[in-house]
Design goal:
single chain, 256 residues, alpha+beta, Thiol Ester Dehydrase, Chain A, six-stranded antiparallel beta sheet, 29% helix, Thioesterase domain-containing protein, THEM4/THEM5_acyl-CoA_thioest, fatty acid metabolism, lipid metabolism, HotDog_dom_sf
């Protein structure tokens, strides 16, 4: 999903793959996460057979096919309940394994957490390798510009056939949040302004670019653009505010 940034680059929390340092267990977890994403996509698109859609253009199985046309609503319900039972058993099995502790739940000192668990490239809802909610977006540094690629499927749909605008905006928040690091500091999102030029389609390679514009004291300004097959679909501008305490994450204190 990401490519490594140069050592010393404060944006590494989003970009550093650190593949050579990943344990076998973490690599296996990433594979599990990928399969959970597949499960979400497949479950979302599961046809209950309430409507006769007819033959699929791509040849995918349909309840109207000869081998399945005899299935009744009761049959389909039984199949889905069996799948639900399997999913419940797997969720229980995973839930019984040790989990990453959280300060607000477990009362632990999270500063002692393993480095990989704290990186955004591991936990982000946008490009996190260990987060099944992430689309995911692949991000990399191109000089001072952060570039990204995404491929949104059915669970991310808003208008029919189009990506939900909230996901378009969330990706901008993440890329601009990373790009602000070119200023040498990081702040929390203050304002994020999104202009949707046209609908962003599903099942299409979506490319993002974001950069640092300028800094005014504790305020860091950034910009971003989103394209579908080279056509501009959305633009963004953002202002990030460095905390008065001085820093967050991998940032640096504000001047003076």
């Amino acid at each position: 999903m990401t490519e490594a940034a140069p050592k010393g680059d404060v944006r590494r929390a989003w970009l550093d793959e650190d593949e050579a340092n990943l344990s076998a267990a973490r690599i296996a977890k990433h594979r599990l996460v990928e399969q959970v994403r597949r499960l979400v996509d497949a479950t979302f698109q599961l046809d209950t057979g309430d409507a006769d859609y007819g033959p699929r253009r791509d040849g995918a199985p349909a309840w109207e096919d000869a081998g399945l046309s005899g299935a009744t609503d009761t049959d389909r319900a039984a199949e889905f309940m069996a799948l639900a039972a399997e999913a419940e058993a797997l969720a229980h099995r995973i839930g019984e394994l040790p989990r990453i502790p959280r300060a607000e739940v477990d009362g632990v000192d999270t500063s002692l957490a393993r480095r990989h668990d704290t990186l955004l490239v591991e936990r982000s809802t946008i490009n996190g390798r260990g987060n099944p909610l992430a689309p995911p977006v692949r991000m990399w540094a191109d000089g001072d510009v952060i570039r990204g690629e995404a491929y949104f499927t059915a669970p991310y749909e808003g208008p029919a056939g189009r990506v939900h605008g909230a996901w378009v905006a969330a990706c901008f928040d993440e890329l601009l949040g990373c790009a602000q690091g070119a200023s040498g500091a990081f702040g929390y999102t203050g304002t994020l302004t999104i202009t949707l030029r046209r609908a962003t389609p599903l099942y299409t390679k979506i490319t993002y670019e974001a950069g640092f514009s300028h800094r005014e004291g504790r305020k860091i300004h950034g910009w971003g653009r989103c394209y579908a097959d080279g056509v501009l679909t959305a633009e963004a501008s953002g202002v990030f505010v460095v905390p008065s305490a001085g820093r967050i994450g991998h940032g640096t204190p504000p001047p003076g």
